Amino acid sequence: MYGVGRLVDNCPHLSGWDTADGEERCRSCGTRRFTRYGALRPPGLPAALTPRPRNATQADRSATIAISRACRRLGRWALGGSVLSRVA
């Protein structure tokens, strides 16, 4: 194992890997490498999130404000040949 910088150790993992329960562990430095996603996924299904209902008028106003702010902030060079164009 050799050091890179002051705080980071860099191991080439040449001593091999121990495998158990969906993960591999380096014998020299202890780095874990997951071979199955079971360790990263909690059990059960994720909870479904439903956004609150919005009416079409509020959604249109929000989109209009977002587009108008973006057009004001972008310079002529940034718009270039893009779909957005300045409106007088």
Give an account of the 3D structure.
The structure is a single chain. The chain has 88 residues and is an alpha+beta fold. It has a domain of 38 residues. A hairpin with a 2-residue loop joins strand 3 and strand 4. The chain is elongated, with a radius of gyration of 26 Å. It starts with a strand and ends in a 9-residue tail after the last helix. The relative contact order is 0.09. The mean pLDDT is 73.
Which properties best describe this structure?
single chain, 88 residues, alpha+beta, two-stranded antiparallel ribbon, elongated, DUF6255
Specify Rg, calculated over alpha carbons: 26 Å
Number of discrete helical segments:
2
What profile does the largest beta sheet have?
3 strands, antiparallel
Strand content: 15-25%
Round the mean pLDDT to the nearest integer and report it. Answer: 73
The separation of the N and C termini measures 64 Å
In sequence order, what are the helices and strands, one letter per element?
EEEEEHH
How would the global form be characterised?
A: elongated
What structural class do you assign from the helix and strand content? alpha+beta
Pfam families: DUF6255
InterPro entries: DUF6255
